[in-house]
């Protein structure tokens, strides 16, 4: 029997506006097993990204529990133990806005290593950066470039490398290809699946594309207006 990595229990995230309360996430529950690709599918505005940002700690839940490997982690990311923050990573939808344009690729990839005092196989930060670039099929010379100097697909590869820098076991993929040209979408998806299998990662894969999830995920949850309508096997 597989271990449960993440349990979402009656999670709510509401936002108070001048027009009233927006129930972005309204009492959803699901779980993700070790090394599972779990698809969360819904149209724009259904609350999918709010789920991602709440799980990763960017938002604090209004109600409900986020249980990660047996621990309730429903507080903001900065209040979570460093080891926990290292183990849960996210790939954002738009690499153009998620990468700091004032930092080189090397600086972007070294930052999580420094924040988490992370070293793999006693590698120095520069060696780890070179390894990460090789993993996402970018040449070493890219470490001296700025995000604005490379294409959207390459920026997303950097975003993926950054998410994998600290050797996490759980990664949230928030529409990782929707902002990219069709020509590079398949390459990014193939790369993500290869990493999932190689490193035995658990994914929360968020998308509006149900047909994609049928080919990628083991289970799929359908989200609409802040609620989960159905959870079923992808097959």
Describe the structure.
- This protein has about 240 residues and is an alpha/beta fold.
- About 35% of the residues lie in helices and about 30% in strands.
- It has 8 helices and 10 strands.
Quick structural summary:
By secondary structure, the chain is of the alpha/beta class.
- In total, the number of domains comes to 1
- Straight-line distance between termini: 20 Å
Q: Which architecture does the CATH hierarchy give at level 2?
A: 3-Layer(aba) Sandwich
Mean pLDDT: 93
Q: Tell me about the biggest sheet?
A: 6 strands, mixed
CATH class: Alpha Beta
Search tags:
single chain, 235 residues, alpha/beta, Rossmann fold, six-stranded mixed beta sheet, 8 helices, 34% helix
Blueprint (SSEs and pairs):
Blueprint: E1 4-17, E2 20-33, E3 37-41, H1 48-56, E4 63-68, E5 71-72, H2 82-87, E6 88-91, H3 95-98, H4 105-115, H5 125-135, H6 152-164, E7 170-174, H7 182-199, E8 202-207, H8 210-216, E9 219-224, E10 227-233
Parallel strand pairs: 3-8, 3-9, 6-7, 7-8
Antiparallel strand pairs: 1-2, 1-4, 4-5, 9-10
Helix pairs in contact: 4-5, 6-7
GO molecular function: ATP binding; ATP hydrolysis activity
Protein name: ABC transporter domain-containing protein
Domain ABC transporter: 6-234
């Amino acid at each position: 029997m597989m271990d449960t990595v993440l349990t979402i229990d009656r999670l709510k995230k509401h936002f108070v506006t001048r027009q009233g309360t927006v129930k972005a996430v309204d009492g959803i529950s699901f779980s993700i097993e070790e090394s599972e690709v779990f698809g969360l599918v819904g149209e724009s505005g259904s609350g999918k990204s709010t789920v991602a940002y709440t799980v990763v700690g960017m938002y604090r839940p209004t109600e409900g529990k986020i249980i990660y490997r047996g621990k309730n982690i429903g507080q903001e990311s900065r209040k979570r133990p460093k080891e926990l923050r290292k183990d849960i990573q996210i790939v954002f939808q738009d690499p153009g806005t998620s990468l700091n344009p004032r930092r080189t690729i090397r600086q972007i990839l070294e930052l999580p290593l420094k924040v988490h005092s992370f070293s793999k196989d006693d590698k120095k930060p520069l060696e780890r950066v070179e390894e990460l670039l090789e993993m996402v099929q970018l040449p070493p010379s890219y470490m001296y470039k700025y995000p604005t100097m490379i294409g959207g697909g390459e920026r997303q590869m950097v975003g993926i490398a950054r998410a994998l820098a600290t050797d996490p076991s759980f990664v949230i993929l928030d529409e990782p290809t929707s902002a990219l040209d069709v020509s590079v979408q398949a390459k990014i998806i193939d790369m993500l699946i290869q990493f999932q299998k190689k490193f035995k990662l658990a994914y929360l894969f968020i998308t509006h594309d149900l047909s994609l999830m049928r080919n990628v995920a083991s289970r799929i949850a359908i989200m609409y207006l802040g609620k989960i309508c159905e959870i079923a096997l992808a097959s």
